[in-house]
Amino acid sequence: MSNASDGARIKVWPGAPAALSGDLQGGGGSGRVNNITYDGLVLSNVDYAVEITQCYGQKNLTLCNQFPSNLTISGVEIRNVTGTTSKKYEPVSGYVVCSSPDVCKTIQLDEIAVVSPAGVENSFSCGNVDESLLHGINCTAVPGL
Fold first, then answer.
1. How many Å apart are CA 81 and CA 141, to the nearest integer?
2. How many CB atoms lie within 10 A of CB 118?
């Protein structure tokens, strides 16, 4: 995948309505994302190599944490991802943020080798996720979670 916003992506609204923009409202739906595998992605100039969020559309992450998603995420494995990211979020190349560890479990990243234009490898923003399952990822905590 080249010149895209995201490589592997799962986006979920938080448990409270959130305004992504003036004409797009969302949030609160129930369900689950389960047993998903991304394997063998080759990326070039993508904004995020991996983006998993249960706070889609919610800029106030404290509010997202107070009202966790009604849609659960579990059993996600992303492996064998190589390539480069764009300058948009440099040096961060990925984003894995759950609204609560109670509704977001077993997200695993293996064999990720993604480099930002500055040469930084596998720098991710992380929140409410089991970092021991993010092999080789350098997590920076997301403020507000």
1. 22
2. 10
CB 132 within 8 A of CB 96: no
> What pLDDT score was predicted for residue 18?
65
**Amino acid letter, 93:** S
Structure tokens at 38: 């991304």
Under the banding of pLDDT at 50, 70 and 90, the label for residue 107 is: very high
**β-pairing verdict for 24-26 and 18-21:** antiparallel
Region of residue 32 (left: phi > 0; alpha: psi -120 to 50; beta: else): beta
Compute the 3-state secondary structure of the chain and give helix, strand, coil in percent, each to the nearest 5: 5, 55, 40
> Where do we find the tokens 């992450």?
61
Question: Is-contact 93 78, C-beta < 8 A?
Answer: no
Whole-structure pTM value: 0.91
Cis peptide before 91 (omega within 30 of 0): yes
